[in-house]
Structures
1.
Amino acid sequence: MNNKLALIAIAVLLVGGAIVTFTKPNAPKNMSMNGHSTPQGPVFTVSDVKVPALNLTEMRGQAAYTDNCAACHGERGIGTEQGPPFLNRVYVPGHHGDASFFSAAQNGVNQHHWPFGNMPAQPQVTTGDLKAIVAYVRAIQSANGFAQ
Ligand code: HEC
């Protein structure tokens, strides 16, 4: 191969590499594509999270979420060292339907997807607040690309 051809070959490889690098989905690095791996701690920062205009129910949910869920699931669902983020494929509606939120709060959750330990039941949260929490979480998820 003469020098010119070698240079062209290198240029093609570089451009190809750049295309692959820049077209990758903007997925957090410590998460597998099916979302079943076990990232440690938050992946998003609060300022990364887009908050859509919230309706009254979603606003009620935001308040109840902040009081009862955010200590572990993080402000705006970003997760903490105590619990998983809801901004994650694992928790899209098709994977964890709304019923799983009621069940989690009413019965608690045994550790199964993550290394955070069990989720204790949250019996203090009313059904009305839970409905609102689900509405809020779904609003945040869908505004940040986790609609389904
Ligand atoms: C003390 C920490 C803590 C609090 C408070 C908490 N969670 Fe959790 N939650 C967890 C952990 C840890 C898991 C992950 C369990 C696993 O899959 O390994 C979890 C999982 C879940 C799941 C997934 C359930 C499933 O079927 O896999 C839902 C839904 C959920 N939490 C909703 C809530 C809601 C709603 C609140 C507030 C009312 C809340 N959590 C408060 C720690 C917490």
Note: Confidence is low (pLDDT under 50) at residues 13-38.
2.
Amino acid sequence: MRELKILAVVVFFTLIMYIGVEPFAHSQMHPHVEPADYTFSDVDGLKDLKGDAKNGATLVQANCTACHSIISQNFPPVMDNASSAAAYGVVPPDLSTAGKLYNENYLAAFIKDPAKAGKVEHKYEDGAVHPMPKYDWMKASEIADMVAYLKSIAPETMTNKEVFADSCLRCHGIKYADMQKGTMNSITPSENLETYMGKIPPDLSQYIRSRSKSYLHEFINDPQKHLEGTAMPRVGLTKDAQEQVVAYMEEIGDSKKEQRNELGPKFLIYLLVFAIMAFLWKASKWRDVH
Ligand code: HEC
Ligand code: HEC
């Protein structure tokens, strides 16, 4: 009888902790944030303008290729990565795939005002300027032409690795992906990144384990929601591209997940069989004692 009372007390306090205290602590430490908004409804986007890709080609060539390579269209980088990181703080991404990676409204807003679209205006309050100039002096139709051009040259499909490399690798390494050759180090050297960002962006190999998937989706879509004042710009990926990025982080950081999931039920059956055997064994021993 005494044991039962003790058990009841333990169960009672455990339930209070589990139902009352834990969710409360969780809600305090991880305040609820709105889910990722893949429509980027807050940006000054295309406003349904349909651009002319041909005119866009001329405009992009004239305005963007001094900093950005577009390898697929035979615009090689003007400088090597080290010089370009020294000049801009971060190596500007190749634009061959931008039309596939980024939401078109976000892309238009980013071209008009990179710091605003990326939600990093707080970094440029003391007169410093974003390394990519604003193109808000151009006509809305011209911005739409450039977006149409970038979309017209973008590949139909990309691997998860390519999506990750084109949207994150200029700032973040993911070293577990390729330990020997070190080709998945960040494209920009860390010294430059430290100056540009105020800190070295973390290696992303294990973030799929230390953060939940929903956290990663919300964070990439709008880092300010979880880390207010952070230097990481919003990366305006489409839902598909973002799912590929997170899938890649899972491939690299948690490659044994499927095997683990398969093992789970087998292990539970094993425990159950042994629990029954242990119980029978105990019963047989105690029968003689009593
Ligand atoms: C003076 C150099 C410079 C010029 C000119 C320039 N950019 Fe950039 N661009 C950058 C840099 C640097 C970055 C990376 C900024 C960062 O990651 O913080 C960037 C980033 C981008 C991105 C990535 C956006 C994202 O959310 O990650 C796109 C797309 C882009 N530029 C398009 C363009 C287009 C289109 C043009 C021409 C209209 C252009 N850029 C002109 C320097 C430039
Ligand atoms: C222009 C540089 C830049 C780009 C591009 C960038 N990041 Fe970041 N990222 C940062 C910086 C800087 C931090 C550190 C933020 C801090 O601690 O305030 C960071 C932090 C993070 C974190 C850690 C968040 C946490 O909770 O501590 C994750 C996860 C992340 N980035 C994922 C990504 C992914 C995925 C991409 C590509 C879709 C990406 N980042 C693109 C600069 C960048």
Note: The mean pLDDT is 94.
